[in-house]
Amino acid sequence: MASSQSGKGLAVVTGASTGIGYELAKCAAQDGYDLVIAADEERINLAAANLEEFGTTVDAVEADLSTLEGVDRLVERITASGRSVDLLMANAGRGLGKGFLDQDFGAARMVVDTNITGTIYLIHAIGNQMRSRGQGRILLTGSIAGFMPGSYQAVYNGTKAFINSFSFALREELKESGVTVSCLMPGATETEFFKRADLMDTAIGQAEKDDAGDVARIGYDAMMDGEGDVVSGWKNKLQAAVANVTPASMLAHQHSKMAEPGSGNK
């Protein structure tokens, strides 16, 4: 990786080939940061080429971030650059629709390994480096899905509940360290998530969604301001507030209406 053209710093973004991750990387590039971006698909290289148009240096890493080996590959690439990470945006994530017992278990485990294991393994590695320097900013992509039991998305919502909780705990642990931790909690966003999760026949898959660029900007600004969490969009803020005072059984029933296979045709 070449030396910084801007001198502003280095930002690392996972899940950056498309969607919110790409838009987060764009925010950093527009702000003058050099980038290391990662995803588990070849399109990460196209994303890098597009981001270089902002005049910043971009290093693309194609790696399976559901595995410790894939995360190690990313960390090794960062280390090889000889630079410290100023911004870490841990955005990589997977979804999965349909009833839990009808899902392929390997696919369900990959959701857990990507959304939780790979994410916290990366944060453990880079977070320790940040703490040693006494500075750095971390943004995790959680979700308002983490506030409710996700019928027909049970594993996914469970992983996001973990990320939401983990971010607050880590923020408290690092509050005197010079390292800030923020959590972006979007609602349904216009990305390839729903197609990849096989949710296109559901009500939530067919519903109008938030713009990925708007969601990313809200999360990026919250991270730069050192905010602990941000829910993007007033409808999502309302949904999150209601979820906090609604019985879990009722939330699970409501979620089934959105995510049950075929619900988009009812």
Task: Summarize the structure in words.
By secondary structure, this protein is an alpha/beta fold. The chain is built from ten helices and seven strands. The protein has helices at residues 19-30, 43-51, 68-80, 105-133, 154-173, 193-196, 203-206, 212-224, 234-243, 248-259, and strands at residues 10-14, 34-39, 58-62, 87-90, 136-141, 179-185, 229-231. A seven-stranded parallel beta sheet has the order 3-2-1-4-5-6-7, with helices on both faces. Helix 4 (105-133) links the parallel strand 4 (87-90) and strand 5 (136-141). The longest helix has 29 residues, at 105-133. It starts with 9 loop residues before the first strand and ends in a 7-residue tail after the last helix. The model is unreliable at 1-6 (pLDDT under 50).
Residue stretches low in confidence (pLDDT < 50, at least 5 long) are: 1-6
Number of helices: 10
Strand content: 5-15%
Spatial extent as radius of gyration: 18 Å
Main sheet?
A: 7 strands, parallel
Nearest-integer average pLDDT = 89
Number of strands: 7
**Quaternary arrangement of the chains shown?**
single chain
Alpha-carbon distance between the two ends? 52 Å
Query: Helical proportion?
Result: 40-55%
Spatial shape: globular
GO molecular function, one term: oxidoreductase activity
Keywords: Oxidoreductase
InterPro entries: NAD(P)-bd_dom_sf (IPR036291), Sc_DH/Rdtase_CS (IPR020904), SDR_fam (IPR002347)
Family: Belongs to the short-chain dehydrogenases/reductases (SDR) family.
